[in-house]
Amino acid sequence: MVTVTYIEPNGNEQQIDVPEGWSLMQAAMSNGVDGMEAECGGSCACATCHCYVDEAWAERVPAAAENELAMLDNVAAERRPTSRLSCQIKATAALEGIVLRLPVNQS
Ligand code: FES
């Protein structure tokens, strides 16, 4: 299990133990985290699983592939340097303790 903290748009924090190999979107949806829509179910085709990776973790998350970068052009909320699609980030031991912030709107 990998402990992930999600900070919802209203500032609420949810700490979730995520099985390794799950995407950080999948874990958020399964646990009722507010601020995630994930309309495409994780196929990198909707950009409604946008999150901001806490800066302390940004370097440790594997780099985004080209299709993710292209989809990030379509996010509804402000795109920032730490913007990622949470369906494209897999829980691994290297990400133990990661913090994600959810934007105010996804679509
Ligand atoms: S769930 Fe659609 S792009 Fe991540």
TrEMBL record:
Location of the 2Fe-2S ferredoxin-type domain: 2-106
An individual GO BP term: P450-containing electron transport chain
Pfam families tied to this protein: Fer2
Keywords: 2Fe-2S, Iron, Iron-sulfur, Metal-binding
GO molecular function, one term: 2 iron, 2 sulfur cluster binding
Gene3D superfamilies: 3.10.20.30
Cofactor: [2Fe-2S] cluster
Gene Ontology CC: cytosol
Superkingdom per UniProt: Bacteria
Similarity section: Belongs to the adrenodoxin/putidaredoxin family.
Name of the protein this chain belongs to: Probable ferrodoxin
